[in-house]
């Protein structure tokens, strides 16, 4: 304070000020007039004052610049932090007002996020404690920093996976991507239902095609490889010690694939070729490939969830994924609809999962079923009520209970199927063992080395091997807060994925959900 008073030159204590000689008029004039106009007489006094004021004004400028720079830095830190108020309470409502068409709002948000990321001005999770050991989960044998994912459809063309990871997600799913580019359904095809924080969409899998997405993902790997002085192949083969898809430790990139609309859904061979084409192009860049057979907006797509076509398609995808030109192969998951929820349909899907060797299932998607999506007691305004009659898949918080129920049921079915397979395998092995023993008995003395038995060296069936590795579940549908995410995980999922909550809650949603989860866990521990 004292020094700033001295620097300012005005706020000196009165006693000191009065002790100083008062500047002459000329000198006072000098303070306000250019020096060449000064008379020569009082020059000495004037020049000594000038020598004093010049560094003073420089200091002032320096002080101002520093404080402006500091304030700018503080604003930058605040605005680019996912916890900032504006990401929740300013940006999402502003997008709704400025872009009445939800797809326009979505496109602008995606390209703005991409541009901000390139300029290093993107919102990001800055707090180092946002994850922490309590949120870490093991998925497919690898550690994931946290169990919150961003669901397919938000980054359909793999334009901004890194900007989405920066929001704090442990998992980002890009796509759905079809083999050939297709435009999707005519616009408008995305609608907001703000009264219930819901969305309806009938995009119909608009995609730039698998070659385009492969090009985008390859470019990303190349840039990353260059930044750490490796080549593309080394990064894909794990030499950078990061997953080859996400390129970030403890995170996973999911790449979702689907069939083209024009491909005849009743011809399973043709459909399989569509998926296999996508795998050929994209497997290298994915930690997990997701087979989409559940979008409600591609005619006939969900029929592929019947056990026979599903088994064939998934087997084709798994086989192709195992051939991926990379040291570690991507895992394969299948995304299933919440509308195929009767016991026999679900059993069929579980059977197809085991018979094909798929590693897991993403339970949920948007729904065609409008029953129960409006909370009791809520009366929609006219606009929302009209929007609810639009054709397409609905998503929003009211889907949560259905998702939770489905996750619990799939968990039970998958585990019970796995037990059955193990049991059956043991019976088969015992049968093989006893027949081999009988044969060995008749051969005793004739051969020195024992033939390998099923017990000591014999083959285990493909299903048996799978039964030893539990099938992984990711969940999507109506997850909005930390308490719900925890419930989903406790019901048997490894990852809780979000989309609509991000649209309404803004880019701090992932951070918020994680901190709510921690609070919930702390609360639970204290209660105990
Ligand atoms: C506009 C929009 C586009 C979507 N596109 C896809 C897609 O391409 N593939 C897919 O599997 N799911 C897609 N989904 C579904 C989401 O991935 C998610 O499963 C669903 O919205 C339920 O989750 P939520 O309640 O968190 O939104 C889309 C959803 C929305 C709202």
UniProtKB/TrEMBL annotation:
One example GO MF annotation: dihydroorotate dehydrogenase activity
Domain Dihydroorotate dehydrogenase catalytic: 135-415, 472-521
GO CC, alphabetical: mitochondrial inner membrane
Cofactor(s) listed: FMN
Gene Ontology BP, a term: 'de novo' pyrimidine nucleobase biosynthetic process
The organism's place on the tree of life at top rank: Eukaryota
Keyword annotations from UniProtKB, A to Z: Flavoprotein, FMN, Membrane, Oxidoreductase
InterPro entries: Aldolase_TIM (IPR013785), DHO_dehydrogenase (IPR050074), Dihydroorotate_DH_2 (IPR005719), Dihydroorotate_DH_cat (IPR005720)
Pathway as given in its UniProt record: Pyrimidine metabolism; UMP biosynthesis via de novo pathway
Cited PANTHER family: DIHYDROOROTATE DEHYDROGENASE (QUINONE), MITOCHONDRIAL, DIHYDROOROTATE DEHYDROGENASE (QUINONE), MITOCHONDRIAL-RELATED
Protein name, UniProt field: Dihydroorotate dehydrogenase catalytic domain-containing protein
Organism: Microdochium trichocladiopsis
